[in-house]
Amino acid sequence: MESIVSRVVLITGGAKGIGLACAQHFAKLGDKVAITYNSTKPTGDFFAVKCDVTSQTEVDAAFTAVEEKLGPVQVLVSNAGITKDLLLLRMSETDFSSVIDANLTGAYRVCKRATQSMLRARSGRIILMSSVVGLLGSAGQANYAASKAGLVGFARSLARELGSRTITVNVVAPGPVETDMTAALTQEQRDNMLNAVPLGRMATAQEIASVVAFLASQDAGYITGAVIPVDGGLGMGH
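RE: above sequence
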């Protein structure tokens, strides 16, 4: 699968993990790729813009920089997010609201900004990064699960709003993925996690990126409002 024409692709949270794998995949397809980061500036050949998605001002500035450098964003991958895992009785309101703001309201901010140019072009692809936890639930992750579940309703509403303009909006819901975060788990924690996965292993970030790239391709032109699980069967039945 390769892009017929080079598109402008923006990936939020593209400095590492799934976001970086997506950036690398789109670059191999010949697309012009921009990424946002929030702390350490990434290395590599991508056009990188510092952006905290909890700030509308920074989101607007990031899009303006990408538009001036590469052109209007044609594919948006909303991947930036955070976790603050705590049991409910230990979770402060700030712990809850900050995760919702970054993961769900942050997606609203970048999608609203991206659709300005997509509506004019009457074309676009939006992919939101959710999680199997959004539908499965996870003890100690009520804030994270709520934010990821919210993306489903958000995406499906946008799919209905924007479909007449040939803009598709879809959700990818990964299960356990081999990243720096999961690499820090103890063997016992890894074993407990994988015991629940029918395929018995974690996904690679590249496997997630491949699905994201498919949803952005012409082959997926008739798919919108979908939630695509890439979870080894962990969340099947939802």
